[in-house]
Amino acid sequence: MIPKPYFVIKTHHQFGKTRTKIECPWCETQFWAYNWSMAGSGKRCPGCGSLHGMYLGAQEPPRKGTGK
Fold it and tell me: Are 23 and 48 in contact (CB under 8 A)?
């Protein structure tokens, strides 16, 4: 399982909190994520469930029906 790089669409700074809009390389869904979340445990794509991390890239989405 080789991670893919995700695409940064936009970065937004407000009240000391930085959010980044990213595009999932697996399903092309665009969503917002806080940078602290990306640096910590990561953020799951609402479209396919793949895990996006600041240093890991986008992990492959979980397979349906396997529970993993």
Answer: no
Alpha-carbon distance of 57 to 63, in angstroms, equals 18
Helix residue ranges, H only, 1-68: 35-39
Domain spans, the chain: 7-58
Compute the distance between CA of residue 43 and CA of residue 37 in angstroms, rounded to an integer: 6
Give the predicted TM-score (pTM) of the model. 0.79
Model confidence at 66, in pLDDT bands (50, 70, 90)?
low
Q: What's the CA gap between 34 and 42, in Å, rounded?
A: 9
Max CA pair span of the chain: 41
